[in-house]
Amino acid sequence: MTADTATTAGPDQAPGSGPGPGPRALARQRRRASVVRFWRQYRTHRAGLVGLAALLLCALVALTAPLTVGADVQSVTDAPGRPLESPSAHFPLGTDQFGRNLLGLVIWGSRVSLLVGLLAAVLSVAIGTVIGITAGHFRGWYATVIMRVTDWFLVMPTLVLAIALATVMSRSLSTIVLAIGVTTWPITARLVRAQTLAVESRPYIERAKALGGGHWHVMSRHVLPNVMPLVLAQTTLIISSAILAEATLAFLGLGDPTVVSWGGLLQDAREAGAVSSGDWWYLVPPGIAIAVVALAFTLCGRAVEAVLNPRLGVSR
Question: Rounded to an integer, what distance in angstroms lies between the CA atom of residue 234 and that of residue 59?
Fold first, then answer.
C-alpha cells in the first residue's frame, strides 16, 4: 500500500480498501434504500395513505394553533360569545358553557391530546421493549419473575390501574402520561420477548458470543435492530389507545383542569348538562376529533405492520 493511497482514503473509507465506498457509506446507502423500499410498499396500502394524510392534517392544525386561534381562546373572562350558543356564521361549532369559541377550543385541544398520546405511547413502548429484550436474552429466574409481573399487568384492567395512579398523584399532564405509559406496556413486552427469542436462536448470535460479544453488545447491536420494525408498528397502534385513554381520564375529571384537551371538553360538556339539554355541538366535535385521530393511527399502524410483516395478509 502506497502513502498516497493511505492519505487519500476518506473518513468513510478504510485505508487500502480501494475506490469503493467505506463501511459507513455502505450503511447509509442501505438505510436509504430501506426507507425508499418501505415507502414504495407503504403507499400501495390505500387505507394507510388515508390515515397518514389525516395525521399530517391533524399535526399541521396542532402546530399552527398558536397562529390560527391563539392561546386567548382558552380565556374564560374574555369569552367572545354567550354561553352555549348554537353553531352560526360567527361560531361555526357554537360556544361552550363560558361562551368560548368551540372551534378554537377543539383546535387548541389537539395540541394536548396528540402530545399526551405520543408521549404515553413512547413511554409504554420503551418500557415494553426493554423488558421484552432483557427477558428474552437473560432467561432463567429473571425472565420467569419479569414475565409473571407482565402477566399480572395483563390480567388487570388497564383503565382501572390508570385511574388509580391518576387519582393518587397530582392532576397534571405528566401524571396522565405516566399513568398510561406504565399500564399499557405488557403487550409490547410479550411481543418483543417472542421476537428476541427468535432472533437469539439464529447462528450469527452464537458467533457473536463466541467472538467475545457481551450482553450489551448482543442486545444493542444484534437484537434491537431486528425487533425495531415490530416496535415501530406497535408504537403506531398504541398511540391511538393512548389518545383514547387520555380522553377517558380527562372525561372522568382526572386530567389537568388548567389545560384544554378533547377529553376535557367532553368533561365540561357533561358538567354543563349538554346531553340532557340537547346541546349536541358541545359533544360531537371533540368526540369526532378523538375518533378520527384514533382511526388514523390505527390505519397507519396496520399498514406499517403489513409492510414489515407481509405474512399477516392485511388488506389494502
Answer: 20
